[in-house]
């Protein structure tokens, strides 16, 4: 199957579950069915609590039973490599059904996509879109997030680290006149925090919150992990930051294309609070997901929930949340939703597919792309040779200077010589999927 936007042949094959033993194969074969099973189990176990808030409990219960049936059907279709079915009804919030149905699922020039034979990006995104569709198609459970309980649980598990980050950031905001070298040191540290915050991913652990970082000091962990940053362009990023400070921009904007909620989201907020309070930027745009996505991805509701939770907790968290709230009120923080981020489209076609979003991103002086899914989309999810330069990997996508922060959890990489790959393979055979290695890659 080829994406319809790929009028020319892609330079390399797509990652796909077709290749037995690959991480994409293991994801479609094992991780994705486990995620569906966990959602089904949760809905069965908690049905009474779920329908309680509805106007009509009996009718909501019927809805829930139907959804459970549809989820089981989806799981069995996945496991038996059936074709992806169309979305019969559009959802006003996304308005993307036509795109899915006519361009992604039903293409004129190739057979309908199947779970194991199509690009991994397409089928993995499809699963989350299909789950959303099931709830949206119901009468009483529209907009229900079947992952929110896992995200909240993960937040509690990570609370100790979240407090450390909040308190660290509060401390950085006490002083207003840092020298340039002090600003540099703290900025670098926050970028590292943002990078390693990305290790916590519930879609990788198939919703299991027990695998989170448990150390008492996240800062000690980071010190040790920094030798695992395989490409580190942080100095180029700071040079660019100096360039921004030395130029009279009317409005200095940072955009963060977010990944996971919980610890990672708080880490992103820490960087943003620091940047605004020390006037490194005038505004930070947080791009969140419009619908529940890849288990732990940040939605608007996750952000609201976390702020509310922190406002009612210890003084450090309260203080941090109040700062975020104040920046939200003054529009120095903006939370934005865009449908493009829940489509299985790579970024190099954004300018053509969603010129409005592309233009909006062009206004930023720096865009940070967090995590694996964004990285897969930056590289068009192709099997690039590892030594491919980052610029080539981006295939012309360049709305603004961009920084990819990612702990490695998928078999796609660039900027690494093949000798380094051989060395890593000997050292740790799972280095490409266990999230223990990171990348800080910058392109201007
Ligand atoms: Mg994620």
Task: Describe the 3D structure.
With 444 residues, this protein is α/β, with parallel strands linked by helices. The chain has 2 domains: 23-136, Transcription Elongation Factor S-II, Chain A, CATH 1.20.930; 148-443, no CATH class. The chain is 49% helix and 8% strand. It has 18 helices and 7 strands. It has helices spanning 23-45, 47-52, 57-79, 97-105, 120-136, 148-157, 159-174, 180-197, 218-225, 234-245, 263-277, 300-311, 315-329, 350-353, 355-362, 371-378, 390-393, 418-427; strands spanning 229-232, 253-257, 283-288, 333-337, 366-370, 402-407, 438-443. A 7-stranded mixed sheet has the order 1-7-6-5-2-3-4. The radius of gyration is 21 Å and the shape is globular. The two termini are 33 Å apart. The mean pLDDT is 93. The site of magnesium ion (MG) has 9 residues, from helix 16.
Secondary-structure blueprint:
Layout: H1 23-45, H2 47-52, H3 57-79, H4 97-105, H5 120-136, H6 148-157, H7 159-174, H8 180-197, H9 218-225, E1 229-232, H10 234-245, E2 253-257, H11 263-277, E3 283-288, H12 300-311, H13 315-329, E4 333-337, H14 350-353, H15 355-362, E5 366-370, H16 371-378, H17 390-393, E6 402-407, H18 418-427, E7 438-443
Parallel strand pairs: 1-7, 2-3, 2-5, 3-4, 5-6
Antiparallel strand pairs: 6-7
The structure holds magnesium ion.
Keywords: Hydrolase, Manganese, Metal-binding, Methyltransferase, Nickel, Transferase
Organism: Daphnia pulex
Domain Damage-control phosphatase ARMT1-like metal-binding: 27-418
